Amino acid sequence: EEAGPGRRGEREAGEGPAERGPGAAFHMFVVMEDLLDKLKLLSYEEEALRRHNMRPLSRHYFALPTNPGEQFFMFCTLAAWLITKAGHPFEQPQECDDPNAVISNVLSELRSF
């Protein structure tokens, strides 16, 4: 039997969520809820958010593009906190920092793991 794009788990280029199945469009919401559960287990509200006077994340915070600048800063804040929690000192990014530099620093630090 020839392996072709119709095989299970394989996608053709340009294939959208509708072609992957009815639940594919909602997968990002499930992933976000799993992320939020894991952050809560790590006490992110007490350790990360209160320190920066930020509100807790909603169940779909990163799943829907509502305010990209705010979402990017929240991502960077959580990334810095998680890196520090893992034992690598990492300076908390500021909102006025260059986004490319911030992402470069986060990726560089993660590669050092």
Automatic annotation (TrEMBL):
Pfam families: IFT57. It is found in: Cell projection, Cilium. Residues 1-22 are annotated as: Disordered. Keywords: Cell projection, Cilium. Residues 1-18 have a biased composition (Basic and acidic residues). GO terms for cellular component: cilium; Golgi apparatus; intraciliary transport particle B; microtubule organizing center. One of its GO terms (biological process) is non-motile cilium assembly. Belongs to the IFT57 family. This is Intraflagellar transport protein 57 homolog. It comes from Mionectes macconnelli (McConnell's flycatcher).
